[in-house]
Structure formats: structure tokens, C-alpha cells
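Appendix B. Chain record.
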Amino acid sequence: MMFILSVGSDPDTLNKRSAVLAEAGYAIVSVIDMPKAAEKIANEEFDMVILCNSLIEEDRRQLVNMMRRHRPFMPLILIPEGSTEDEMRRRVSATLGEPVPGQASSQAV
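C-alpha cells predicted for this chain:
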């Protein structure tokens, strides 16, 4: 199973992204709280981190810097505002590959 940490400041956007990616077959952990996101990046294994454009620039910068210190080879993508569901799925699958069918899950933290 491919695990993705999705971080953003808008719960509705995070829920929608999680649903789309879980439906595509990825396991998603969504986090809206910056300290919780930093903790997860430092202490848990993910195959990818997705940062939403809804995060303020300073929060994004801090998370990217922390991620590069703790997980320098973990893929990171920024989902621009206004991205379609298909664009989002394509960007994730282009980086991680296609998930194994029937193994998806979604969890909000």
C-alpha cells in the first residue's frame, strides 16, 4: 500500500483530496495542524507528502525544510489551487506509480 501525507489549511479541500486519492487506491493521512504535520514527517514513514497551496507560504517553507532534513528522498508535490481531480491523480501516479487495487484508506488527523 502507498501511504501519502496530505497537509493543508482547508478541511474541505483536504477531505475532497483524500476521497479522490483513496478512491484511486492510495492510503491517505490528512493533517490540518502544522505541529502534527511536522511530527508525522519526523516520525512516520510515508511514500509521498502533498502540500496544498492553501497553506501559508511560511508554513510550506518550514515543512519542506523539515522534510528535507528528516526524509530527503521522500517525494513532495504541491497541489496548485484549482487543480482538477484528474490532474491531482495524474501527478500522484506519475510520482508513485499506480496503487494496488483494493488497498486504499483515508484518515484525518
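Further analysis of this model is presented in Appendix C.
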